[in-house]
Amino acid sequence: EVQLVESGGGVVQPGGSLRLSCAASGFTFDDYAMHWVRQAPGKGLEWVSLISGDGGSTYYADSVKGRFTISRDNSKNSLYLQMNSLRTEDTALYYCAKGQVTTDWDFDYWGQGTLVTVSS
Amino acid sequence: DIQMTQSPSSLSASVGDRVTITCRASQSISSYLNWYQQKPGKAPKLLIYAASSLQSGVPSRFSGSGSGTDFTLTISSLQPEDFATYYCQQSYSRVAFGQGTKLEIK
User: Fold this and answer.
1) Is A103 in Cβ contact with B43 (below 8 Å)?
2) Which pLDDT score is estimated for A76?
């Protein structure tokens, strides 16, 4: 059974940093691209970032480019999101999601999310 | 960037109704269109991928159609557990989600 468990969320001041983690199990982790997708309170879904299975390729939404860094440790079946220079508009529930076998850019499994609140 | 527009934004329906939700892309995306269901407090769940392929384990009352710029999600006979918010998502050029359609009980 595929499981994705996020952690690392919390309350941080504007300009601060936070590192999110996602522990994966139930599939061959390094075979699949992984994503971060976020959802602001009461709002829709916003894609944040993708990393390829081998970690060699990364992509970011314009809203986070230059501030967030996605990474993975395939030896630990773990995905990360380093978030710097946080803004109030980054407040959201952050999901990690697994890419599909047919295409990296679809999401077939999602974690339950970790909440990031940016507030002074 | 490709923009995705869903209609309606909200919809009231009754158990047993046939319901259709529409998603339009700002440019052609071939069949790179997925549908997700999200219930309150839960993560999204993939229902339909590649416009019309049913994800494993999803009931057959859900179906998807369309290609190019216009797509539909149809629920043939609404069940109580189907009341949720539905999102379309294009994967033709990176990722973009529609704004969501909230399906409520009439």
Assistant:
1) no
2) 98
